[in-house]
Amino acid sequence: MPLYLQIANGLVSQIRRGSLRRGLRLPGSRDMARSLKVHRKTIVAALDELQAQGWIIAVPRKGCFVAEQLPDFRPQRITDRTGNEAALIKANFPVHENGFVEFPAASLTPGALLTINDGFPDVRLAPIDLLLREFRSLSKRTVFRKYLAYGDPAGSPRLVETLSQFLSDTRSLPITTNNIMVTKGAQMGIYLAASVLLRPGDEVIVGEPNYFAANLTFQQLKARLNRVPVDEQGIDVDAIEKLCRKKKIRLLYVIPHHHHPTTVTLTPERRLRLLELATRYRFAIIEDDYDYDFHYSSTPVLPMASLDHHGNTIYIGTLSKTLAPAIRVGFMVAPGDVIRLAARLRRTLDRQGDSMMEAAIAELYSNGTIGRHIKKAVKTYHERRDHFCRLLSE
């Protein structure tokens, strides 16, 4: 077990036994490192782990303290609500509640010892210091002032150009800056693309199972969902072809790299058949590639969009899995007319993205920081996976 985890687990044991009482101020990281004869960074890593698990809290300029509310699972008494309830619960005018589907809210249990989720990155690995460094560097340049004004709804030209080159080099996408739009995450990309394509009653094909948020988006747009099985080779292309013979399919949503939630990869043969069907029956493909940069046993398979020479594919990706969920930056790659319509629609919802954030991220791409971060993060996830597998086997 890594040394910082041994130290963290030892402190947890002391807290559980009461040797370290609640609210107690812990020694500073330098003092602890000197006492345990380890590097100070090892102590900092242990304290970060304890804070992430909810055993301690860090107070700026004061130090680390044992948490008053420890993350042990204990039943809590159900009490009646008291005091005045919030005013203005209902509006005094009609609200079309039935016109909106309800998205389940993501929630994390504070201080949980083990959190099982569907692929959120560890925010402790996010290169925030480097991102802030780029912010500071840009802020000192006179040219940076232009990012404080209104900009292009398709995204900061600097990031659009950088992503266009990056995606061409790493994913063989035959694109120019006219084929890319910066979004606030993959979900916005899915919504904008579907809104441009779909009208109420249009037929959409999705996998079964499938990414729930995509299904809810299509339902919000009043489309008809046709569910197709997903097996160990990916989405069933034979079933898709049968549907195309019976119905006028407008859109197919697919996650070929790591299907959500099964994680299977769509085989090359099925990818080519899907593109052939899209060309023959003239339907659009939304290719959701939310985690292209992350893989364990092999190099990533090139996107279907890299093989599409007829303009049937809309390719969507995100940096939220690469950096952190709170950094809402994604991209959509599509034929130029689709990008123009999506940008026009985006202006009615969100005048533009965060130009300053997009400019800083463009710098991180240009100087290779994001590439190095991805390699480091993947290595860390490998080590944690192996450690977790050893624990399960024991």
Keywords:
two-stranded antiparallel sheet; alpha/beta; eight-stranded mixed beta sheet; 12 helices; 394 residues; single chain; globular
Instruction: Tell me the major beta sheet.
Output: 8 strands, mixed
Structural class: alpha/beta
Unreliably modeled segments: 82-86
Number of helices: 12
By oligomeric state, this entry counts as single chain
End-to-end C-alpha gap: 13 Å
Strand content: 5-15%
Name the strands of the widest sheet in spatial order: 3-10-9-8-7-4-5-6
Task: Average the pLDDT over all residues and give the rounded result.
Answer: 83
> Which range best describes the helical content: under 10%, 10-25%, 25-40%, 40-55%, 55-70% or over 70%?
40-55%
Task: Compute the number of strand runs.
Answer: 10
One letter per element, helices H and strands E, the order comes to: HHHEEHHEHEHEEHEHEEEHHH
Radius of gyration: 25 Å
Shape: globular
Secondary-structure blueprint of this entry?
Elements: H1 3-17, H2 29-36, H3 40-53, E1 56-59, E2 63-66, H4 128-139, H5 157-171, E3 180-183, H6 186-197, E4 203-208, H7 212-220, E5 224-231, E6 234-235, H8 237-246, E7 249-254, H9 268-281, E8 284-288, E9 313-318, E10 330-333, H10 336-349, H11 355-366, H12 369-393
Parallel strand pairs: 4-5, 4-7, 7-8, 8-9
Antiparallel strand pairs: 1-2, 3-10, 5-6, 9-10
